[in-house]
Specification:
0% strand; 73 residues; mainly alpha
Length: 73
């Protein structure tokens, strides 16, 4: 199994992938999950990788949405 990163490959995540990453970040980093996803989004943006930047921005948005839903309950 080849697990190396291929920067030229498409980074468009499925909704399931985004949800999984949001859950993983929340479980590992709690209230910092959205900030960590934003950090990765910014790093990829600075490296010129718009696809991965967009993907991480989507993860950050899902984390924030889930937080809003928890707080409104």
């Amino acid at each position: 199994m080849n697990t190396s990163w291929h920067p030229e490959s498409d980074a468009t995540p499925s909704p399931r992938d985004v949800e999984f990453m949001a859950c993983t970040l929340e479980a590992r980093h709690g209230k910092y999950a959205a900030a960590i996803a934003d950090f990765f989004s910014n790093v990829h943006c600075q490296d010129g990788d718009a696809g991965r930047s967009w993907a991480w921005a989507g993860v950050a948005e899902v984390v924030r949405q889930r937080e809003r839903e928890r707080l409104s309950s």
